[in-house]
Design goal:
alpha+beta; 8-stranded mixed sheet
Length: about 260
């Protein structure tokens, strides 16, 4: 019996049926066996993202109005000049559990795991949150919780029109000049995995925009890793750092060789 199972029994709880304790060689063999399935899942996830990039677009013909920290804002304004927009509908308003001190617990957990937005912005993508709470309450909540994402007040039927009037969800948009298109929507269990740069980019129509991705012809793509940067060091006009190119090239080659040697 393992120690954890023994402690569980002494504490009056049902004993845990834990996995066997094995040698390092047996553990490595078990890991390699599982790794085959994990790599298959990664490739399937990449293929699904590629299919997502080929979803049809829906033109947004209606005009929507929001309130932001600087006053009235249109849906186009939410892009902040970038090409892609992700809007998360968070529940913070009268009638929601936690009001007025907190937003919904689930939405708040999601907000806590949002990565630094500079990396998304570097891929021409803006992430915003939207609720029906007034801006003064949103500003107070963001300050208390340490959240940095842009957060707007919904003032019309945006939430109902895009399937987030009763439950949370992420809507994804792209713009062509001033024309806006809805490209994707994810909610329920899909929402719980959101928060990383990659989880956000993988639901956008342009993806991570790296050369290894399977994207339609003409989509923007740059060499893998080269655009990565410190979040306080992005410059839209800068070329990739020479030293970083060398380091990332070596790392990419090592990963590729390792992946090839481990294929079944």
């Amino acid at each position: 019996m393992t120690k954890s199972a023994e402690n569980g029994r002494k504490g009056g709880q049902s004993a845990m049926h834990t996995p066997p304790v094995v040698s390092s060689q047996e553990w490595e063999a078990a890991r390699e066996q599982l790794l085959v399935k994990e790599k298959a899942q990664t490739r399937a996830r990449d293929a699904l993202a590629a299919e997502r990039r080929r979803m049809p677009w829906m033109a947004v013909e209606k005009t929507y109005a929001f309130e932001g920290p600087d006053g009235k804002a249109s849906l186009l304004d939410l892009f902040e000049g970038r090409r892609q927009l992700i809007v998360y509908r968070a529940f913070f308003e009268p009638g929601v559990y936690g009001w007025p001190d907190h937003a919904c617990r689930g939405c708040s957990l999601g907000a806590d795991q949002v990565g630094h937005l500079a990396h998304l912005n570097a891929r021409d993508t803006t992430l915003v949150y939207a609720s029906r709470a007034p801006q003064a309450d949103i500003a107070r909540l963001k300050k208390r919780m340490g959240w940095e994402m842009p957060w707007y007040t919904i003032t019309d039927s945006f939430d109902k029109d895009f399937g987030v009037d009763e439950w949370h969800g992420h809507n994804v948009f792209i713009r062509d000049g001033e024309r806006i298109f809805r490209t994707y929507f994810i909610n329920n269990r899909g929402d719980e995995a959101m928060g990383t740069v990659w989880s956000y980019l993988d639901i956008t129509p342009l993806g991570r925009q790296e050369v290894w991705e399977d994207s339609p012809e003409g989509y923007p793509q740059t060499p893998t890793y080269k655009w990565w940067n410190w979040h306080d060091n992005y410059d839209a006009d800068a070329t990739p750092d020479k030293k970083w190119v060398e380091v990332s090239d070596a790392g990419e080659a090592a990963f590729r060789n390792q992946d090839t040697s481990s294929k079944p």
